[in-house]
Specification:
15 helices; mainly alpha
Length: 291
């Protein structure tokens, strides 16, 4: 991995927890409940929060853009989430949820100069992504099209979200180019040790679908019969990750060397606060720290 791509991946590792707290924070659960969503499981809120920028997207559109979720699972929640309230109401509640979460998570730092500085830098990168190449990145484009909040902590979250969806859309393209369908993308990722197969069960694929995908990978020489990647399988996944990093890199080129280093310094304490909150799971389907 080149130095530049390594830095791009590091920025993803730093920003991802700052985005992901939305899906786990008690404050977000409370906002989802106030909208009328069930909160005995996190998926009604998750699908509403993440899909709302797309408008009243149907199940096919959400399954296509989220990619790794079983279409059957998506259909359990979409378009039903829009019968509870509108995407516009969800977006307003999402902003309130982030505001409450960040204020609790960061305390007085939420109004500090260092957070303002971090927000300005990450926003510059996100706006570069908006200008450069969101045309074929639907989730990134939808989030980039939203009005920018005035409060720096909310702008930081929105910029982090644009960039993580920008990366995710590029990752989807890399998976398609590698010939990995949605369930194969998870089976092949589990095969290289990104997370235990049980973690990927959250995406809703049946045991039969998982076994069938594993067999297809065996037939392609990408996995052995026990669900462990072969050398070819590891090489393919490494190529997917390389292409993902490359596709994510362009917006980050707006930062100079000193700005890169300063942003790492500024994001470090925020990352520690998010990770140290205990809200986020220790093992996820993203494979951060494993690949």
């Amino acid at each position: 991995m080149s130095e530049e791509l390594g830095r791009v991946r590091r920025m993803w590792h730093l920003l991802e927890p700052l985005h992901a707290v939305l899906y786990y924070a008690p404050e977000a659960v409370a906002e989802a409940a106030a909208l009328g969503y069930r909160t005995d499981e996190r998926w009604p809120g998750y699908f509403a929060w993440r899909a709302a920028p797309l408008g009243e997207a149907d199940a096919g559109r959400v399954a296509e853009t989220f990619y790794s979720f079983s279409p059957a699972m998506v259909s359990e929640y979409v378009p039903a989430v829009w019968s509870v309230t509108s995407p516009g109401a969800v977006l307003a509640a999402r902003t309130r949820a982030v505001d409450r979460t960040y204020r609790k998570l960061l305390g007085d730092a939420v109004d500090g100069q260092e957070l303002r500085e971090a927000a300005a830098l990450v926003r510059r990168v996100a706006e570069a992504a908006d200008i450069a190449d969101t045309a074929n990145r639907p989730l990134a484009a939808a989030n980039a099209a939203l009005p920018w909040p005035q409060e720096p902590h909310l702008a930081l979250w929105q910029a982090a979200t644009v960039l993580r969806e920008h990366r995710g859309d590029g990752h989807l393209a890399a998976l398609v180019e590698a010939g990995l369908d949605p369930v194969e993308s998870l089976v092949s990722f589990a095969a290289v040790g990104a997370a235990r197969p049980e973690v990927f069960a959250s995406r809703g694929w049946s045991d039969a679908e998982w076994r069938a995908a594993r067999q297809r990978l065996v037939e392609r020489g990408l996995s052995d019969g026990g669900g462990v990647a072969t050398e070819a399988g590891r090489a393919l996944r490494a190529e997917v990750e390389r292409r993902t990093d490359e596709a994510a890199a362009d917006p980050w080129r707006v930062l100079g060397e000193a700005e890169w280093e300063r942003l790492v310094e500024l994001l470090g304490p925020l990352w520690v606060a998010a990770i140290g909150s205990g809200m986020l799971p220790s093992e996820t389907t993203l494979g951060i720290g494993k690949v």
